[in-house]
Amino acid sequence: MSLKSDLKFPVFLVASLLILLVASVVLRRDNHGEYGGQAEITLQEPRDTVIDKDVFGIPRDVYRIENGVVEARQTLSHIFSRLGFNQADTDRVAREMKDVFNPRRIRRGNNYYAYYAMDGSAALSFFIYEISDLEFVRIDFRDSIRVLRSQKQVSVIPGATSGIISSSLWNTLMDNDLHPELVMHMSRILAWSVDFYRIYPGDRFKVLYSEQYVGDRPVGVSHVDAVYFLHRGREIEGYRFEADTIKGYFDPDGNNLRKVFLRAPLEFVRISSRYSHSRLHPVHGDRRPHLGTDYAAPHGTPILAVGDGEVTRASYTRGNGNYVRIRHNSVYETQYLHMSRFASGIRPGVSVSQGDVIGYVGSTGIATGPHVCFRFWKNGRQVDHLRLEFPSGDPLPEEYMDAFVRRKELLKSKLDNIVFEEEPAI
């Protein structure tokens, strides 16, 4: 056999071994992402195991939990004393908290939770204080004290409802177990179109909204998408639209539901005395003009600026008590009397926007109970604002109309599918 033929078998053998080696390396990289290990294909456990956590971001079934409710006049020191802390440790926790949450602001009725390790040490690992339904403070004691202020995981679920009013919008929604925030959203959207002080039995509504949930518990209403309201025989529709800097509620033709002025400086209160040229004065006992509208409300209720403008007076007189006067333009001015106090920053020369809080209901000056006397000037004369028709805000710009119409038609079809449940005849 020649030398050439003798080399054929070794060369073939070496080439075969190299192919097998490369294949083995490829298999190992495919199965493990790196060199080494077995060449066989095996089922692997996922590298990142999903850990089930509670609404505060703490792993479930790892800690023993004790919960409590803040009692009247209870402070952070009281709570941590019950948890076994001495005053020095409590002071240290308070110092760590102060940049995140003021411990003096804990409120009666709010919940707190203590998480204890179940590893035999029974050490306090976490402390949770619920600021609200959505927000909480978490203190981590495991290594060093670490304080976090955060929000719970929230899911948003669309909702739809309707109602026929027998007494008030509030009562109707509460009777249907709906969240109170829905009332507030609807009142703000329709504040310029519906006289909530003259709601009539038989007035009715439909509404599309988005409700916030933590787990299976409703905690609020994020927004309303569309609303239909039949008020004293007049149909009112509003559709939410947002694009670029545009944000608001518009009627089917793209007109802004927002008016230049709010109908009233308070939400959900009653008129205790109307504008009159001859009213029996509740204190002096004689008849005299009352060129304003009195709105009765609980002490401390926020008073709102009914329109954009500049504060010209924020002062006190014996008759008016604490009062604020606002110039809106060369035609209109408004005045708000008998405040318990002014809102922070309210003083002459300050600009305010519609809906800003300017003060709080009280009974300063000559007043028999907590209310705000609201006065309205047009061209220098006091007038009854409830008899005036105010222009709307800016309509939807033409370039957004096509997008608005598409959205409106979608929402309107959903509103049309909502039926009114008539009350059974007695």
The CATH architecture of the largest domain: Roll
CATH class of the largest domain: Alpha Beta
Question: Which oligomerization state do the chains in this entry correspond to?
Answer: single chain
Rg (CA only):
33 Å
Q: Specify the overall morphology.
A: globular
Number of H/I helices = 7
Summed up, the domain count is: 3
Mean pLDDT: 82
Low-confidence stretches: 1-45, 274-284
Q: What is the share of helical residues?
A: 10-25%
β-strand percent reads 25-35%
Structural class: alpha+beta
- Distance N to C terminus: 118 Å
How is the biggest beta sheet arranged? Answer: 10 strands, antiparallel
Order of helices and strands: HHEHHEEEEEHHEEEEEEEEEEEEEEEEH
User: What is the fold named in CATH at topology level of the largest domain?
Assistant: Nuclear Transport Factor 2, Chain: A
Give the tally of β-strands.
Answer: 22
Topology of this protein?
Layout: H1 3-6, H2 8-32, E1 63-69, H3 76-82, H4 87-97, E2 111-117, E3 124-130, E4 135-140, E5 146-151, E6 155-164, H5 169-175, H6 180-189, E7 204-214, E8 217-231, E9 234-243, E10 246-250, E11 270-273, E12 276-280, E13 287-290, E14 293-296, E15 302-304, E16 309-317, E17 321-327, E18 332-342, E19 351-352, E20 357-361, E21 371-378, E22 381-382, H7 401-416
